[in-house]
Amino acid sequence: MSAFVSFEEVSKVYRMGEITIRAVDNVSFSIEKGEFAVIVGPSGAGKTTVLNMLGGMDGCSGGTIRVDGSLISGMTPRQLTAYRRHDIGFVFQFYNLVQNLTALENVELASQICRQPLDAATVLQEVGLGERMNNFPAQLSGGEQQRVAIARALAKNPKLLLCDEPTGALDYQTGKSILKLLQDTCRQKGVTVVVITHNSALTPMADRVIRIKNGTVADMRCCSHPTPVEQIEW
Ligand SMILES: Nc1ncnc2c1ncn2[C@@H]1O[C@H](COP(=O)(O)OP(=O)(O)OP(=O)(O)O)[C@@H](O)[C@H]1O
Ligand SMILES: [Mg+2]
């Protein structure tokens, strides 16, 4: 049986005039359903490129990408739109909330476009924002805004929750509480979570660590007893 997520010899080449950039070069890895996976590596290593191909935001130049039995790398643009809409939840470094909608409306907006959304208010309660649902993003702290963004992604009831440097704009304690929320969500809801970070200190919290260097996988390892993030210091 094949893995829930699999990359097989995936490459991504960007052409800019005379110059070609091999952002991702023959990358292979797999992730099992329900795992908390961390993709780690230095700036420019190709982490975001990998995540964008996995989430159907960018096509690959070669190789095969499979998610839950579907061949993502063979999809038409229309199929990719449906895949992003129904199967993927994204969380970005800078939240990307709609400023003139409340927290609740931001979550409802996302749940309106997918097939089996969860109740927006319930999900906001689960991320700890039950009391702040009617606030606008500008009335919330960075950590609270990131919780709204996580609720927005989770309300879609996605197969995969993809997070690109989700704590990059947050202070130490707030970043830790966001990572705890992601780890708890993975454990309690069984959703497969992929987190990108440049911070190697976070790797003990993962079931699986994929280390990316110069566009290639330098190392992939699994951990049967990951550390709760609140016990990690960095
Ligand atoms: N749209 C693009 N056009 C051209 N080159 C790109 C494009 N996107 C990424 N690259 C290049 O591909 C390489 C990998 O970039 P990527 O953004 O995936 O790195 P990263 O590991 O996410 O880095 P960071 O930690 O700084 O976010 C870099 O050399 C980058 O300049
Ligand atoms: Mg990046």
TrEMBL record:
<dbReference type="InterPro" id="IPR027417">
    <property type="entry name" value="P-loop_NTPase"/>
</dbReference>
<comment type="similarity">
    <text>Belongs to the ABC transporter superfamily.</text>
</comment>
<feature type="domain" description="ABC transporter">
    <location>
        <begin position="5"/>
        <end position="234"/>
    </location>
</feature>
<dbReference type="InterPro" id="IPR017911">
    <property type="entry name" value="MacB-like_ATP-bd"/>
</dbReference>
<protein>
    <submittedName>
        <fullName>ABC transporter ATP-binding protein</fullName>
    </submittedName>
</protein>
<keyword id="KW-0813">Transport</keyword>
<dbReference type="GO" id="GO:0098796">
    <property type="term" value="C:membrane protein complex"/>
</dbReference>
<keyword id="KW-0067">ATP-binding</keyword>
<dbReference type="Pfam" id="PF00005">
    <property type="entry name" value="ABC_tran"/>
</dbReference>
<dbReference type="GO" id="GO:0022857">
    <property type="term" value="F:transmembrane transporter activity"/>
</dbReference>
<dbReference type="GO" id="GO:0016887">
    <property type="term" value="F:ATP hydrolysis activity"/>
</dbReference>
<dbReference type="InterPro" id="IPR003593">
    <property type="entry name" value="AAA+_ATPase"/>
</dbReference>
<dbReference type="InterPro" id="IPR003439">
    <property type="entry name" value="ABC_transporter-like_ATP-bd"/>
</dbReference>
<dbReference type="GO" id="GO:0005524">
    <property type="term" value="F:ATP binding"/>
</dbReference>
<dbReference type="InterPro" id="IPR017871">
    <property type="entry name" value="ABC_transporter-like_CS"/>
</dbReference>
<keyword id="KW-0547">Nucleotide-binding</keyword>
